[in-house]
Amino acid sequence: MENHQYSASHVGQVQDRAAREFLTTVGLPVASVLFTADEASGPDLDRAVDREVVRIGYDVEGEGSYYVDCGTGAVLYVEEYAFTQFHVSASAQSFAECLEVFETRTSETAADAGPDELEEITESLRKALAEIDPSTLREDPGFWHSLLFDVAIGDYRADEEE
User: pTM for the complete prediction?
Assistant: First the structure.
């Protein structure tokens, strides 16, 4: 996956040095099944977020945006229509790793995968996410738990044309 390196001015508010350096030097995927990098400012989050954040991208389905917490470097997802926030990962680096694992595991799922195979893939993905960043699964229901449910019911199977 090609990465988008964020401009220093865009992430200048991020006080967590590791997060700021990762975002400017390595960056996050330009586009993946879950995320599209973007430096545009997001909507007013006064009702949804209780901390200072910088928008780093959006959900491909257009329901929300991803932000980095300026103080901790953690990544969160905000559903703007519901003013709801979810913890995604403890850092931008672990977020990038989780995106890569999710993309790889779900792209390998056959269009005709049955319930048993989908459950195996879901469990494998759950273990991989927990190894990368134990905080990813701390909220239930939460961001990753919701996606794991979607994987288990077949929402991320490969298209039949592929």
Answer: 0.90
